[in-house]
């Protein structure tokens, strides 16, 4: 097992080679002073590793200079040379995303936060709107006057199984959650607020429409 480890920390691709060289020299400065290894051999070892990293980062991964990497590799000093343990080489890559790719996501997220704040101010309420041919109970979920979701409750041996979907504050699906029939409205609100699985808006809307069609 190698006795020493080089860890560059986070560094942009455009500066990794210099960071490798400076880190290696800093770690081996005492050995250089003690003449256990010549500085030229340290420089050669850094250069050899950097050639390999260039092949990985530039030729294979096609990373940009602004992308960020972390390089960790073990090594020994033997007979006046740095011996890299390349089997231990670990690389982390953090790829920079162009602004045009995330600007719209930021704007949409800000809008979602505003919607969340609105929902906190106007509490959700559950309204019973009908039954299915099989006796299941259909509910609408509302925030103020706006319908934001639908639930269907199947009574079963003194309990209930709830499923449904919401569009706001985020699209979620509620998949067969068991509830107590006591304090039912409170139980349903808890399901709506806590039990949803995040999904695409289109899927949530489809489930809501399916539930609405179930009403007798």
Automatic annotation (TrEMBL):
The lineage of its organism: Archaea, Methanobacteriati, Methanobacteriota, Archaeoglobi, Archaeoglobales. Residues 174-201 form a coiled coil. Keywords: Coiled coil. The keyword Cell division does not apply. The keyword S-adenosyl-L-methionine does not apply. This is Thermo-DBP-RP2-like C-terminal domain-containing protein. Residues 122-212 form the Thermo-DBP-RP2-like C-terminal domain. It comes from the Archaea.
């Amino acid at each position: 097992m190698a006795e020493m480890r080089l860890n560059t920390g986070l560094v942009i691709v455009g500066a990794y080679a210099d960071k490798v060289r400076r880190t290696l020299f800093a770690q081996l400065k005492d050995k250089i002073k003690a003449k256990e290894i010549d500085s030229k051999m340290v420089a050669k070892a850094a250069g050899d590793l950097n050639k390999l990293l260039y092949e990985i980062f530039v030729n294979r991964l096609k990373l940009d200079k602004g992308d960020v990497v972390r390089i960790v590799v073990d090594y020994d000093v033997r007979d006046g040379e740095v011996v890299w343990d390349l089997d231990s080489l670990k690389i982390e890559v953090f790829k920079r995303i162009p602004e045009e790719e995330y600007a719209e996501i930021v704007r949409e997220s800000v809008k979602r936060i505003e919607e969340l704040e609105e929902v906190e101010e106007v509490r959700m309420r559950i309204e019973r709107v009908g039954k299915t041919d099989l006796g299941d109970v259909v509910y609408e979920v509302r925030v103020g006057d706006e319908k934001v979701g639908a639930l269907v409750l199947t009574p079963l041996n003194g309990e209930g199984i709830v499923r449904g979907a919401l569009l706001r504050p985020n699209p979620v699906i509620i998949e067969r959650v068991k509830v107590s029939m006591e304090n039912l409205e409170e139980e349903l609100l808890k399901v709506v607020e806590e039990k949803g699985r995040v999904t695409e808006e289109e899927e949530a809307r489809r489930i809501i429409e399916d539930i609405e069609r179930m009403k007798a």
